[in-house]
């Protein structure tokens, strides 16, 4: 019964200059859409970790988050939103330092670009914030797959500087 999906085109994509191929490090890009997104009940933005306090809160290993992924149920573009409670763990020693790591039940559904979220405080209010951006998994997909998320806190200066070069629609 949800309102219709809306489709947008990407008119520009800016990927991070220091992508590290062998470890998939600094795995992040910004996409500019072809027009302004009009927010409504089913289309909402999410907050990013802006303040240094909120950014530092991701240092704690064992912090809980919610991992969101689309689970395809039928035809392409038909799916349900899958939510899983996960906690961060120490990344493997050979991982690039730009990641937050978890273990998940991926059920073999592709999730790259998906969000790792939890509540955070900003300007005396509590909001849903996106702390991680799904990069890749290691090992067989399914139960207990190691998941690597780009630690967005590290990239806030890059995001803000890049956005500053563009006007709004
Ligand atoms: C994520 O990045 C923030 C900001 O650089 C840092 O304080 C935090 O320790 C990082 N988290 C992990 C788990 O490395
Ligand atoms: C995740 O944890 C919260 C708080 O403990 C709980 O309310 C929620 O039902 C859990 N969600 C799932 C999908 O297990």
Keywords:
8 strands; binds 2-acetamido-2-deoxy-beta-D-glucopyranose; disulfide bond; Thrombin, subunit H; 38% strand; 169 residues; six-stranded antiparallel sheet; mainly beta; globular; 2 helices; two-stranded antiparallel ribbon
- Highest-level CATH class of the domain at 45-154: Mainly Beta
List the secondary-structure elements in sequence, H or E.
EEHEEEEEEH
CATH topology label of the domain at 45-154: Thrombin, subunit H
> Major sheet: size, sense and barrel closure?
6 strands, antiparallel
- If you compute it from the alpha carbons, what radius of gyration comes out, rounded to the nearest whole angstrom? 16 Å
Which range does the strand content fall in? 35-45%
Which strands sit side by side, in order, in the main sheet?
Answer: 4-3-6-7-8-5
CATH-derived architecture of the domain at 45-154: Beta Barrel
Q: CATH superfamily assignment of the domain at 45-154?
A: Trypsin-like serine proteases
- Give the overall form: globular
**What percentage of residues falls in helices of 4 or more residues?**
under 10%
Uncertain stretches:
none
What binds here, in terms of ligands, is: 2-acetamido-2-deoxy-beta-D-glucopyranose
């Amino acid at each position: 019964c949800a309102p219709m999906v809306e489709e947008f085109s990407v008119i520009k994509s800016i990927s991070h200059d220091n992508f590290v191929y062998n470890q998939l490090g600094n795995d992040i890009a910004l996409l500019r859409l072809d027009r302004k997104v009009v927010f409504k009940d089913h289309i909402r933005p999410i907050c990013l970790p802006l303040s240094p306090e909120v950014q530092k809160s991701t240092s704690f290993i064992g912090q809980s988050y919610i991992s969101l992924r689309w689970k395809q149920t039928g035809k392409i573009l038909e799916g349900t939103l899958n939510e899983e409670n996960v906690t961060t763990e120490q990344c493997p020693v050979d991982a690039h330092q730009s990641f937050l790591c978890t273990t998940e039940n991926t059920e073999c559904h592709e999730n790259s670009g998906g969000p790792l979220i939890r509540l955070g405080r900003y300007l005396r209010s509590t909001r849903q914030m996106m702390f991680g951006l799904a990069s890749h998994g290691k090992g067989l997909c399914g139960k207990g797959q190691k998941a690597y998320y780009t630690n967005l806190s590290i990239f806030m200066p890059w995001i803000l500087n890049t956005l500053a070069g563009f006007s709004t629609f």
